[in-house]
Amino acid sequence: MEITSREFGRRPSWVLAAVAAGETVTVTESGITIARVVPVRAETPPYPADPTGEIDLPDPGLREPAGRPEEDHGPVTEAERAAARAELDELDAEHDRRRRRQEERAGGAV
């Protein structure tokens, strides 16, 4: 059976009764299928795997997380610290500029 999303919204109990009776209901919006409501069979478990067992997931191919950055790249130098502080100062200044513009547009209220 196929119904529109508007009809589904108006008569959800009717749709669920049809599904409980074994009917699969396809919900469409502007002629495009957006959902299917299907009956749950007794043999279909409510979860994808045994909750106490392992789930076999594919390997995403990511490397292990790195340890502390110092272990991988050496200690942080004063030049790197100064560059980071300068970047933060610039971000703070940009934030202040945007805040002032927003206040000017709002007539002083934020």
Verbal overview:
The model has no long low-confidence stretch (mean pLDDT 82). The chain has 4 helices and 3 strands. The chain has helices at 5-10, 12-20, 69-73, 78-105, and strands at 2-4, 25-29, 32-37. The longest helix has 28 residues, at 78-105. It has a 3-stranded mixed sheet. Strand 2 and strand 3 (32-37) form a beta hairpin. The radius of gyration is 29 Å and the shape is flat. By secondary structure, the chain is of the alpha+beta class.
List keywords for this structure.
3 strands, three-stranded mixed sheet, 13% strand, 110 residues, alpha+beta
Q: What overall form do the CA principal axes indicate?
A: flat
Residues in β-strands, percent? 5-15%
Secondary-structure element pattern, one letter each: EHHEEHH
Compute the number of helices: 4
* Structural class estimated from helices and strands: alpha+beta
Mean pLDDT: 82
Short overview:
The chain has 110 residues and is of the alpha+beta class. It has helices spanning 5-10, 12-20, 69-73, 78-105, and strands at residues 2-4, 25-29, 32-37. The protein contains 4 helices and 3 strands, in the order βααββαα.
Helix-strand blueprint:
Layout: E1 2-4, H1 5-10, H2 12-20, E2 25-29, E3 32-37, H3 69-73, H4 78-105
Parallel strand pairs: 1-2
Antiparallel strand pairs: 2-3
